[in-house]
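## retry 2 of 3
previous attempt timed out at serialization; input unchanged, resubmitting
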Amino acid sequence: MSAFNLKKLGPGLLFAGAAIGVSHLVQSTRAGADFGFGLIWALLLVNLFKYPFFQFGPRYALATGESLLDGYKKLGRGVLIFYFILSFATMFTIQMAVTIVTAGLAVEVFPGNISIEVWCLIITFVCLLLLLIGRYKLLDNLMKVIIVTLTISTLIAVIIATSSEHATVSFAQVMPTETAGIAFLIAFMGWMPAPFDISIWHSLWAIEKKKDEKDFNTKSGLFDFNIGYVTTIILGICFVSLGALVMFGSGETFSSKGGEFAGQLINLYTASLGESVYIFIAIAAFTTMFSTTLTTLDASPRAMAKASQLLLGKLIKHSYIFWMAVLVIGTIAILAFFLSEMGLLVKIATILSFVTAPFYAIANFVLISSKHTPKEWQPSTGMKILSWAGIFFLVGFSVYYLFTL
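## retry succeeded, writing output
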């Protein structure tokens, strides 16, 4: 890839950094550990059905010069208010969840007797400083390094796992029939590759990229998105492969606590593949979650600042910094007072993400197909058919999820 093309990339890699987190490291690894390669069909199917609605984020932003949130307001003030309430209800729990898993990995990777709670604070403030000092440009450049490091270390780990004498490969696809298996399948597909509000984050990142690169247009933005999206699919398959090759049939029972799971994950890989692979697994796992923590800490305040500005006007001069402070304080409050209730909070956030997925899908599709989007950038007939199929899938999926809670 030329330096020119590498310079063109940005928001798509931020999308990948935000998406490749719990859905990949935890859910994809568990899919491989419990079902071998049997759920690859689910991973590919859900990425296909969700593709249009994620792609509409940068498509709309670069075709119109405004974010999806501006578009939501044009669809109706109620649409934007609904987003604002939903985002506020989930942002603290999501930030704390990804931070805890990252901190659990830090405990395993870095020497010393630092507790997971202290690591949560360290990681939060390191991310905060990076974003306050470097803003979008540093995030853009840093994510290129992170995604390249993550991809290389993960691929090396998969190659080592494939060549291991313990590796057994069966590509027979399966459909879970037991209640626990069905529940896992729903969660796996619901979080893969990411919650839909990332499409809003992506539209905001695309606009920021446009400020730095004047020739970052709709065509290059869609290319950038496709690079990021394909990366999330490839790495999802890689983590399923690692789970299948190393853990399938091991009888290991994983903890539901992020920190404990992180330790089990790295230790089981090391026990199965040898100490030589430890560094690659550790780097891949920690980089995965650090990138998610960093991009989430940037994106949630960026989206809330924009939404509040559209709803209330410019009441706060530095609204991005204000909402970042709110998110950090809220995250620390959960760490201090509600850590024992983390499981319940995550479950609530998960349910909200599941049942509101059709809202984002329909809103994005209506907006990109409306008069608010230039004709030449509205979706093709094929993309519209895929979008309708995706909406049907997501509505049915959400209803089924509610009935299986």
